[in-house]
Amino acid sequence: MEPDERRDLAAMLYPLVRALIEVEMPVLATQDVSMWGYSVLAALDRTPIRTQAALAEAIGADKTRIIGTLDALQEAGLISRTPDPDDRRARLLAITDEGRRVRRSVTADIRAREERLLATLPAADRRGFLRALTALSALPPGELEEIAAGPVSGSPRSPA
Amino acid sequence: MEPDERRDLAAMLYPLVRALIEVEMPVLATQDVSMWGYSVLAALDRTPIRTQAALAEAIGADKTRIIGTLDALQEAGLISRTPDPDDRRARLLAITDEGRRVRRSVTADIRAREERLLATLPAADRRGFLRALTALSALPPGELEEIAAGPVSGSPRSPA
DNA sequence: TATTGTTATACTCTATAACTATA
DNA sequence: TATAGTTATAGAGTATAACAATA
Protein backbone atom coordinates (compact mmCIF):
# COMPACT_ATOMS: atom_id res chain seq x y z
CA MET A 1 0.00 0.00 0.00
CA GLU A 2 1.17 3.54 -0.68
CA PRO A 3 -0.84 5.73 1.70
CA ASP A 4 1.09 8.89 0.83
CA GLU A 5 0.26 9.10 -2.83
CA ARG A 6 -1.74 12.24 -2.45
CA ARG A 7 -1.42 15.83 -3.56
CA ASP A 8 -0.51 18.67 -1.22
CA LEU A 9 -3.30 19.79 1.05
CA ALA A 10 -3.24 23.33 -0.28
CA ALA A 11 -3.32 22.05 -3.87
CA MET A 12 -6.52 20.17 -3.11
CA LEU A 13 -8.09 22.73 -0.81
CA TYR A 14 -7.50 25.82 -2.91
CA PRO A 15 -9.72 24.81 -5.86
CA LEU A 16 -12.25 23.44 -3.38
CA VAL A 17 -12.75 26.75 -1.60
CA ARG A 18 -12.95 28.55 -4.93
CA ALA A 19 -15.73 26.19 -5.96
CA LEU A 20 -17.52 26.56 -2.62
CA ILE A 21 -17.41 30.33 -2.96
CA GLU A 22 -18.92 29.95 -6.45
CA VAL A 23 -21.69 27.98 -4.82
CA GLU A 24 -22.32 30.68 -2.21
CA MET A 25 -22.33 33.61 -4.61
CA PRO A 26 -25.82 33.17 -6.10
CA VAL A 27 -27.26 32.56 -2.63
CA LEU A 28 -25.75 35.79 -1.32
CA ALA A 29 -26.99 37.62 -4.40
CA THR A 30 -30.60 36.71 -3.64
CA GLN A 31 -30.32 38.59 -0.34
CA ASP A 32 -28.12 41.37 -1.70
CA VAL A 33 -25.21 40.79 0.63
CA SER A 34 -21.54 40.42 -0.18
CA MET A 35 -19.30 37.64 1.05
CA TRP A 36 -17.75 39.86 3.71
CA GLY A 37 -21.18 41.25 4.56
CA TYR A 38 -22.39 37.74 5.26
CA SER A 39 -19.27 37.07 7.32
CA VAL A 40 -20.00 40.17 9.41
CA LEU A 41 -23.64 39.16 9.92
CA ALA A 42 -22.59 35.69 11.03
CA ALA A 43 -20.10 37.11 13.53
CA LEU A 44 -22.57 39.63 14.96
CA ASP A 45 -25.28 36.96 15.15
CA ARG A 46 -23.05 35.08 17.55
CA THR A 47 -22.39 38.13 19.72
CA PRO A 48 -22.38 41.96 19.51
CA ILE A 49 -18.95 43.54 19.27
CA ARG A 50 -17.72 46.81 20.71
CA THR A 51 -15.28 48.03 18.04
CA GLN A 52 -14.83 47.67 14.31
CA ALA A 53 -11.22 46.65 14.76
CA ALA A 54 -12.28 43.74 16.98
CA LEU A 55 -14.87 42.68 14.42
CA ALA A 56 -12.30 42.81 11.64
CA GLU A 57 -9.94 40.66 13.66
CA ALA A 58 -12.73 38.20 14.45
CA ILE A 59 -13.47 37.55 10.80
CA GLY A 60 -9.85 37.59 9.68
CA ALA A 61 -10.04 40.87 7.81
CA ASP A 62 -8.48 44.30 8.08
CA LYS A 63 -10.19 47.21 9.86
CA THR A 64 -9.83 49.39 6.77
CA ARG A 65 -11.28 46.72 4.54
CA ILE A 66 -14.63 46.21 6.23
CA ILE A 67 -15.71 49.86 6.35
CA GLY A 68 -17.48 49.80 3.01
CA THR A 69 -19.08 46.53 4.01
CA LEU A 70 -20.38 48.01 7.27
CA ASP A 71 -21.67 51.07 5.42
CA ALA A 72 -23.67 48.85 3.08
CA LEU A 73 -25.02 46.66 5.87
CA GLN A 74 -26.09 49.67 7.92
CA GLU A 75 -27.64 51.33 4.87
CA ALA A 76 -29.64 48.13 4.29
CA GLY A 77 -30.73 48.08 7.93
CA LEU A 78 -29.03 44.77 8.65
CA ILE A 79 -26.73 46.05 11.40
CA SER A 80 -26.73 48.95 13.86
CA ARG A 81 -23.62 51.02 14.41
CA THR A 82 -23.93 53.46 17.30
CA PRO A 83 -21.20 55.49 19.00
CA ASP A 84 -20.35 54.16 22.46
CA PRO A 85 -21.55 56.79 25.01
CA ASP A 86 -18.63 55.87 27.27
CA ASP A 87 -16.03 56.30 24.51
CA ARG A 88 -17.32 58.16 21.54
CA ARG A 89 -14.45 56.95 19.35
CA ALA A 90 -15.83 53.40 19.37
CA ARG A 91 -18.86 52.13 17.44
CA LEU A 92 -21.08 49.54 19.11
CA LEU A 93 -21.94 46.93 16.52
CA ALA A 94 -25.00 44.70 16.58
CA ILE A 95 -27.14 42.76 14.14
CA THR A 96 -30.76 43.84 13.62
CA ASP A 97 -33.81 41.60 13.43
CA GLU A 98 -33.82 42.01 9.67
CA GLY A 99 -30.12 41.21 9.58
CA ARG A 100 -30.77 38.08 11.57
CA ARG A 101 -33.49 37.07 9.14
CA VAL A 102 -31.19 37.55 6.14
CA ARG A 103 -28.37 35.70 7.84
CA ARG A 104 -30.56 32.73 8.77
CA SER A 105 -31.98 32.55 5.26
CA VAL A 106 -28.56 32.57 3.62
CA THR A 107 -27.16 30.03 6.05
CA ALA A 108 -30.08 27.65 5.54
CA ASP A 109 -29.69 27.81 1.76
CA ILE A 110 -25.93 27.34 1.86
CA ARG A 111 -26.26 24.50 4.35
CA ALA A 112 -28.69 22.69 2.06
CA ARG A 113 -26.25 22.94 -0.85
CA GLU A 114 -23.37 21.77 1.30
CA GLU A 115 -25.36 18.78 2.51
CA ARG A 116 -25.98 17.71 -1.09
CA LEU A 117 -22.23 17.78 -1.60
CA LEU A 118 -21.42 15.93 1.60
CA ALA A 119 -24.06 13.34 0.79
CA THR A 120 -21.84 12.09 -2.04
CA LEU A 121 -19.27 10.98 0.55
CA PRO A 122 -19.29 7.79 2.64
CA ALA A 123 -20.76 8.56 6.08
CA ALA A 124 -17.51 7.82 7.91
CA ASP A 125 -15.48 10.10 5.64
CA ARG A 126 -18.07 12.84 5.93
CA ARG A 127 -17.94 12.71 9.73
CA GLY A 128 -14.15 12.64 9.79
CA PHE A 129 -13.96 15.48 7.31
CA LEU A 130 -16.24 17.72 9.36
CA ARG A 131 -14.57 16.85 12.63
CA ALA A 132 -11.08 17.43 11.27
CA LEU A 133 -12.14 20.67 9.63
CA THR A 134 -13.78 21.92 12.81
CA ALA A 135 -10.68 21.09 14.85
CA LEU A 136 -8.23 22.70 12.41
CA SER A 137 -10.28 25.86 11.99
CA ALA A 138 -10.67 26.20 15.76
CA LEU A 139 -6.92 26.65 16.22
CA PRO A 140 -5.98 30.15 17.38
CA PRO A 141 -4.33 32.33 14.71
CA GLY A 142 -0.74 31.33 14.06
CA GLU A 143 -1.03 28.06 15.95
CA LEU A 144 -1.36 25.97 12.79
CA GLU A 145 1.79 27.47 11.33
CA GLU A 146 3.66 26.75 14.55
CA ILE A 147 2.58 23.12 14.64
CA ALA A 148 3.58 22.69 11.01
CA ALA A 149 6.97 24.29 11.64
CA GLY A 150 7.68 21.56 14.16
CA PRO A 151 9.27 21.46 17.59
CA VAL A 152 11.90 24.10 18.29
CA SER A 153 15.22 23.43 19.96
CA GLY A 154 16.29 25.60 22.87
CA SER A 155 14.35 27.01 25.80
CA PRO A 156 10.79 28.00 24.79
CA ARG A 157 10.48 30.75 27.42
CA SER A 158 12.00 34.19 27.95
CA PRO A 159 13.52 34.68 24.48
CA ALA A 160 15.36 37.81 25.61
CA MET B 1 -28.05 16.15 19.71
CA GLU B 2 -27.53 19.05 17.30
CA PRO B 3 -25.19 17.69 14.60
CA ASP B 4 -25.54 20.79 12.44
CA GLU B 5 -24.07 23.34 14.78
CA ARG B 6 -21.14 24.08 12.55
CA ARG B 7 -19.93 27.00 10.50
CA ASP B 8 -20.13 27.14 6.72
CA LEU B 9 -17.58 25.02 4.93
CA ALA B 10 -16.11 27.99 3.09
CA ALA B 11 -15.87 29.96 6.35
CA MET B 12 -13.77 27.19 7.86
CA LEU B 13 -11.79 26.30 4.75
CA TYR B 14 -10.84 29.79 3.65
CA PRO B 15 -8.66 30.64 6.67
CA LEU B 16 -7.29 27.10 6.58
CA VAL B 17 -5.92 27.40 3.05
CA ARG B 18 -4.49 30.81 3.83
CA ALA B 19 -2.64 29.28 6.77
CA LEU B 20 -1.46 26.33 4.67
CA ILE B 21 -0.12 28.70 2.04
CA GLU B 22 1.72 30.56 4.79
CA VAL B 23 3.26 27.24 5.73
CA GLU B 24 4.35 26.54 2.15
CA MET B 25 5.85 29.95 1.48
CA PRO B 26 9.14 29.56 3.38
CA VAL B 27 9.63 26.10 1.88
CA LEU B 28 9.19 27.43 -1.64
CA ALA B 29 11.52 30.32 -0.85
CA THR B 30 14.36 27.94 0.01
CA GLN B 31 14.21 26.59 -3.55
CA ASP B 32 13.45 29.95 -5.17
CA VAL B 33 10.16 28.93 -6.74
CA SER B 34 6.81 30.65 -6.59
CA MET B 35 3.53 29.01 -5.69
CA TRP B 36 2.46 28.79 -9.32
CA GLY B 37 5.94 27.69 -10.30
CA TYR B 38 5.67 24.79 -7.90
CA SER B 39 2.23 24.00 -9.24
CA VAL B 40 3.65 23.85 -12.77
CA LEU B 41 6.53 21.61 -11.69
CA ALA B 42 4.11 19.24 -9.97
CA ALA B 43 1.92 19.03 -13.07
CA LEU B 44 4.86 18.45 -15.44
CA ASP B 45 6.33 15.88 -13.07
CA ARG B 46 3.19 13.83 -13.58
CA THR B 47 3.32 14.11 -17.37
CA PRO B 48 4.76 16.37 -20.11
CA ILE B 49 2.24 18.66 -21.78
CA ARG B 50 2.06 19.81 -25.36
CA THR B 51 0.71 23.37 -25.06
CA GLN B 52 0.83 26.14 -22.48
CA ALA B 53 -2.94 26.54 -22.61
CA ALA B 54 -3.39 22.89 -21.65
CA LEU B 55 -0.98 23.31 -18.77
CA ALA B 56 -2.79 26.39 -17.56
CA GLU B 57 -6.08 24.53 -17.65
CA ALA B 58 -4.57 21.58 -15.80
CA ILE B 59 -3.50 23.72 -12.85
CA GLY B 60 -6.62 25.88 -12.83
CA ALA B 61 -4.92 29.02 -14.07
CA ASP B 62 -5.13 31.26 -17.12
CA LYS B 63 -2.84 30.89 -20.13
CA THR B 64 -1.84 34.54 -19.91
CA ARG B 65 -1.09 34.25 -16.21
CA ILE B 66 1.51 31.50 -16.31
CA ILE B 67 3.79 33.03 -18.92
CA GLY B 68 5.93 34.87 -16.44
CA THR B 69 6.04 31.74 -14.31
CA LEU B 70 7.22 29.65 -17.27
CA ASP B 71 9.84 32.27 -18.16
CA ALA B 72 11.26 32.08 -14.64
CA LEU B 73 11.22 28.29 -14.53
CA GLN B 74 12.94 28.03 -17.90
CA GLU B 75 15.48 30.66 -16.93
CA ALA B 76 16.25 28.62 -13.80
CA GLY B 77 16.62 25.46 -15.87
CA LEU B 78 13.72 23.71 -14.15
CA ILE B 79 11.62 23.16 -17.27
CA SER B 80 12.25 22.90 -21.00
CA ARG B 81 10.06 24.76 -23.46
CA THR B 82 10.74 23.79 -27.08
CA PRO B 83 8.67 24.62 -30.18
CA ASP B 84 6.82 21.58 -31.51
CA PRO B 85 8.42 20.67 -34.89
CA ASP B 86 5.01 19.47 -36.13
CA ASP B 87 3.24 22.71 -35.17
CA ARG B 88 5.59 25.54 -34.51
CA ARG B 89 2.91 27.54 -32.72
CA ALA B 90 2.93 25.10 -29.80
CA ARG B 91 5.60 24.80 -27.08
CA LEU B 92 6.38 21.32 -25.80
CA LEU B 93 6.68 21.53 -22.02
CA ALA B 94 8.66 19.15 -19.84
CA ILE B 95 10.32 19.15 -16.45
CA THR B 96 14.13 18.84 -16.29
CA ASP B 97 16.12 16.65 -13.94
CA GLU B 98 16.93 19.70 -11.87
CA GLY B 99 13.26 20.66 -11.86
CA ARG B 100 12.39 17.20 -10.64
CA ARG B 101 14.92 17.50 -7.85
CA VAL B 102 13.51 20.85 -6.73
CA ARG B 103 9.96 19.56 -6.92
CA ARG B 104 10.73 16.43 -4.88
CA SER B 105 12.57 18.47 -2.26
CA VAL B 106 9.72 20.94 -1.85
CA THR B 107 7.09 18.21 -1.73
CA ALA B 108 8.99 16.24 0.91
CA ASP B 109 9.36 19.30 3.12
CA ILE B 110 5.72 20.32 2.74
CA ARG B 111 4.57 16.78 3.36
CA ALA B 112 6.53 16.62 6.62
CA ARG B 113 4.90 19.82 7.82
CA GLU B 114 1.45 18.62 6.83
CA GLU B 115 1.97 15.35 8.67
CA ARG B 116 2.78 17.23 11.88
CA LEU B 117 -0.53 19.02 11.48
CA LEU B 118 -2.52 15.90 10.70
CA ALA B 119 -0.89 14.12 13.63
CA THR B 120 -2.89 16.36 15.97
CA LEU B 121 -6.11 14.75 14.71
CA PRO B 122 -7.61 11.44 15.78
CA ALA B 123 -6.61 8.74 13.29
CA ALA B 124 -10.17 8.13 12.11
CA ASP B 125 -10.79 11.83 11.47
CA ARG B 126 -7.47 12.17 9.68
CA ARG B 127 -8.31 9.29 7.37
CA GLY B 128 -11.80 10.59 6.69
CA PHE B 129 -10.49 14.08 6.08
CA LEU B 130 -7.95 12.93 3.51
CA ARG B 131 -10.38 10.59 1.80
CA ALA B 132 -13.13 13.22 1.59
CA LEU B 133 -10.69 15.83 0.38
CA THR B 134 -9.30 13.53 -2.28
CA ALA B 135 -12.79 12.67 -3.50
CA LEU B 136 -14.02 16.28 -3.59
CA SER B 137 -10.92 17.59 -5.35
CA ALA B 138 -11.11 14.79 -7.92
CA LEU B 139 -14.45 16.06 -9.21
CA PRO B 140 -14.24 17.45 -12.74
CA PRO B 141 -14.48 21.26 -13.01
CA GLY B 142 -18.01 22.51 -12.46
CA GLU B 143 -19.28 19.19 -11.14
CA LEU B 144 -19.17 20.30 -7.52
CA GLU B 145 -21.24 23.37 -8.28
CA GLU B 146 -23.79 21.24 -10.09
CA ILE B 147 -24.15 18.78 -7.25
CA ALA B 148 -24.57 21.63 -4.78
CA ALA B 149 -27.19 23.28 -6.98
CA GLY B 150 -29.29 20.15 -6.65
CA PRO B 151 -31.36 18.05 -9.05
CA VAL B 152 -32.92 19.91 -11.95
CA SER B 153 -36.48 19.43 -13.12
CA GLY B 154 -37.12 18.75 -16.79
CA SER B 155 -35.35 16.55 -19.31
CA PRO B 156 -31.58 16.53 -18.73
CA ARG B 157 -30.69 15.93 -22.40
CA SER B 158 -30.91 17.93 -25.62
CA PRO B 159 -31.51 21.39 -24.11
CA ALA B 160 -32.28 22.93 -27.49
C1' DT C 1 -10.07 32.01 -40.87
C1' DA C 2 -8.58 29.72 -36.57
C1' DT C 3 -5.15 28.79 -33.03
C1' DT C 4 -0.78 29.38 -29.90
C1' DG C 5 1.64 32.23 -27.44
C1' DT C 6 2.39 36.97 -26.08
C1' DT C 7 1.67 41.74 -24.60
C1' DA C 8 -1.23 45.53 -22.92
C1' DT C 9 -4.91 47.13 -20.24
C1' DA C 10 -8.16 47.30 -16.73
C1' DC C 11 -10.31 45.66 -12.68
C1' DT C 12 -10.57 43.57 -8.05
C1' DC C 13 -8.64 42.65 -3.68
C1' DT C 14 -5.67 43.69 -0.28
C1' DA C 15 -2.04 46.19 2.45
C1' DT C 16 0.13 50.54 4.11
C1' DA C 17 0.19 55.10 5.35
C1' DA C 18 -1.83 59.42 6.39
C1' DC C 19 -5.66 61.99 8.47
C1' DT C 20 -9.81 63.16 12.05
C1' DA C 21 -11.92 62.91 16.24
C1' DT C 22 -11.95 61.56 20.55
C1' DA C 23 -9.50 60.20 24.87
C1' DT D 1 0.38 60.74 23.30
C1' DA D 2 -2.38 57.14 22.06
C1' DT D 3 -6.51 54.92 20.02
C1' DA D 4 -10.97 54.13 16.82
C1' DG D 5 -12.44 55.04 12.69
C1' DT D 6 -11.84 56.86 8.09
C1' DT D 7 -9.76 58.07 3.68
C1' DA D 8 -6.12 57.87 0.14
C1' DT D 9 -2.59 55.54 -2.14
C1' DA D 10 -0.18 51.85 -3.91
C1' DG D 11 0.69 47.07 -4.70
C1' DA D 12 -0.42 42.14 -5.92
C1' DG D 13 -3.27 39.07 -8.39
C1' DT D 14 -6.42 38.25 -11.87
C1' DA D 15 -9.31 38.79 -16.10
C1' DT D 16 -10.17 40.69 -20.81
C1' DA D 17 -8.82 42.33 -25.13
C1' DA D 18 -5.72 43.07 -28.76
C1' DC D 19 -1.63 41.49 -31.36
C1' DA D 20 2.10 38.56 -33.98
C1' DA D 21 3.28 34.12 -35.73
C1' DT D 22 1.85 29.92 -37.60
C1' DA D 23 -1.47 26.71 -39.40
How would you describe this structure to a colleague?
The structure is a homodimer of 160-residue chains. Chain A is mostly helical and 160 residues long. Chain A has a domain at 10-111: Winged helix-like DNA-binding domain superfamily/Winged helix DNA-binding domain (Arc Repressor Mutant, subunit A). The first copy, chain A, is 59% helix and 9% strand. Chain A has 7 helices and 2 strands, in the order H-H-H-H-E-E-H-H-H. Chain A has helices spanning 9-30, 35-46, 52-58, 67-75, 97-118, 123-137, 143-149; strands spanning 79-84, 87-95. Chain A has a two-stranded antiparallel ribbon with strand order 1-2. The first copy, chain A, is globular, with a radius of gyration of 20 Å. The N and C termini of chain A lie far apart (48 Å). The mean pLDDT of chain A is 92. At the A-B interface, helix 1, helix 5, helix 6 and helix 7 of A face helix 1, helix 5, helix 6 and helix 7 of B. Chain A binds a DNA duplex (23 and 23 nucleotides) through residues 51-53, 61-65, 67, 87-91.
Count of helical stretches of chain A: 7
Report strand order across the widest sheet of chain A.
1-2
Q: Largest interface: which pair?
A: A-B, 54 and 54 residues
Number of strands of chain A: 2
Q: How would you sum up the global shape of chain A?
A: globular
Radius of gyration of chain A: 20 Å
Tell me the strand percentage band of chain A. 5-15%
Distance between the termini of chain A: 48 Å
Low-pLDDT stretches of chain A are: none
- CATH architectural name of the domain at 10-111 in chain A: Orthogonal Bundle
Q: Let me know the CATH homologous superfamily of the domain at 10-111 in chain A.
A: Winged helix-like DNA-binding domain superfamily/Winged helix DNA-binding domain
Report the oligomer.
Answer: homodimer
pLDDT averaged residue by residue of chain A: 92
> Level of helix content of chain A?
55-70%
- Written as H for each helix and E for each strand, in order along the chain, the element string of chain A is HHHHEEHHH
| CATH fold-level topology of the domain at 10-111 in chain A | Arc Repressor Mutant, subunit A
- CATH first level of the domain at 10-111 in chain A: which class? Mainly Alpha
